[in-house]
């Protein structure tokens, strides 16, 4: 049992509270196992009609996977061949699948930082999800910043965001706020943090059979606080769709370079700081993911993450960002012009035959 995950049942709702505030609720393997275990227990429990997941901290819902653990485990053995890493990603992605297809309403209060693995435990399937954002929400899939790619099902949910919004978010790793999250269909309703105590009171006392309808009714008076003009994504939607529709990163960079608008130049500057190889891998992932099921996306990402650690780009990214904190990663290759299709292709080659894939049982 993880000390960082608190659970209880009240008013036929199963409450999961992430409680690792010093690490912004970064997910450990023990936390993943605890969340999985309790969701499996509650899935068929008669006394649980819905699940509500939140954080004990106003700073973060979940900042992602424990990247320092990634680095320590990945450098402890040759070529990142760590059994702990293998278990972590296999079990995390299986949890993402479990949440996506959960048979009961799955409600996530996304207050504070929601990034990477935090998105994986927030982006449930449309038949069960209810994603609540606040004025403190800071949402991102920032993996390209550390030489990784938007995993935890990012190939599925980013590729299904309107237009090219998911491509933009995946290739830049930029942070968005509540209005953007709702506009990009990565969140459902907004409430201010001042209303959270009343929301909790509603959850623990309401007798309404449809808890998601009750939350929508509760959040309705706050909808006017989210204005379209507050959404950066909405403001720049036409430019995003125009520049990020290409299927080659070089083509995207070229069109941004030719566009003198402040947004295009800022976006270009951001992309030039990311791993050239993993930005290219991410674009390929998103284009493939648009035509795959959830399970197929997660299997693809499991193949990708294994190769990513063996390649070492993510280890260099974490070193620069978290370990040495010099913020000067030595990307390999160092420039987009040096990235070839032969470098990208191995990320999409499975290390396992179909019958032995660690996520072969997902459907």
From TrEMBL:
User: Lineage of this protein's species?
Assistant: Bacteria, Pseudomonadati, Pseudomonadota, Betaproteobacteria, Burkholderiales
One Pfam match? ECH_2
Q: Which residues form a coiled coil?
A: none
The processes (GO biological process) annotated in the record are: L-valine catabolic process
Q: Does the keyword Zinc-finger apply?
A: no
Q: Name one GO molecular function term.
A: 3-hydroxyisobutyryl-CoA hydrolase activity
Q: Which UniProt keywords apply?
A: Hydrolase
Question: Per its UniProt entry, which superkingdom is the organism in?
Answer: Bacteria
Q: Which InterPro entries match?
A: ClpP/crotonase-like_dom_sf (IPR029045), ECH_dom (IPR045004), HIBYL-CoA-H (IPR032259)
Ranges for domain Enoyl-CoA hydratase/isomerase: 13-348
This protein's species is Undibacterium terreum
- Protein's UniProt name: 3-hydroxyisobutyryl-CoA hydrolase
């Amino acid at each position: 049992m993880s000390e960082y995950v608190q659970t209880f049942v009240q008013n036929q709702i199963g409450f999961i509270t992430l409680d690792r505030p010093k690490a912004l609720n970064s997910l450990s393997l023990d936390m993943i196992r605890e969340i999985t275990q309790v969701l499996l227990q509650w899935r068929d429990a008669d006394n649980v009609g819905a699940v509500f997941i939140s954080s004990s901290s106003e700073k973060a819902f979940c900042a992602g996977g424990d990247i320092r653990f990634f680095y320590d485990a990945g450098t402890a053995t040759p070529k990142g061949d760590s059994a702990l890493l293998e278990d972590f990603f296999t079990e995390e992605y299986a949890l993402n699948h479990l949440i996506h297809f959960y048979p009961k309403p799955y409600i996530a209060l996304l207050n504070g930082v929601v990034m990477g693995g935090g998105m994986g435990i927030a982006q449930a399937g449309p038949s069960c999800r209810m994603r609540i954002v606040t004025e403190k929400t800071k949402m991102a899939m920032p993996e390209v910043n550390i030489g990784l790619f938007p995993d935890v099902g990012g190939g599925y949910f980013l590729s299904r965001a309107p237009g090219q919004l998911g491509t933009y978010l995946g290739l830049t790793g930029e942070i968005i706020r509540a209005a953007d999250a709702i506009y990009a269909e990565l969140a459902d309703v907004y409430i201010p943090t001042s209303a959270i105590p009343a929301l909790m009171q509603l959850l623990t006392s309401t007798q309404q059979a449809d808890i998601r309808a009750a939350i929508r009714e509760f959040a309705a008076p706050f909808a006017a606080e989210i204005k379209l003009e507050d959404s950066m994504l909405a403001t720049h939607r036409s430019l995003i769709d125009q520049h990020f529709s290409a299927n080659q990163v070089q083509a995207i960079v070229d069109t941004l370079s030719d566009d003198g608008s402040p947004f295009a130049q800022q976006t270009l500057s951001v992309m030039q700081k990311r791993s050239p190889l993993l930005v290219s891998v991410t674009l390929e992932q998103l284009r493939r993911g648009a035509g795959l099921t959830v399970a197929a996306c997660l299997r693809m990402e499991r193949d990708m993450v294994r190769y990513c650690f063996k390649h070492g780009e993510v280890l260099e990214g974490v070193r620069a960002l978290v370990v040495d904190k010099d913020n000067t990663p030595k990307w390999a290759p160092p420039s987009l012009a040096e990235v070839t299709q032969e470098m990208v292709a191995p990320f999409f080659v499975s290390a396992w035959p179909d019958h032995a894939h660690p996520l072969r049982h997902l459907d």
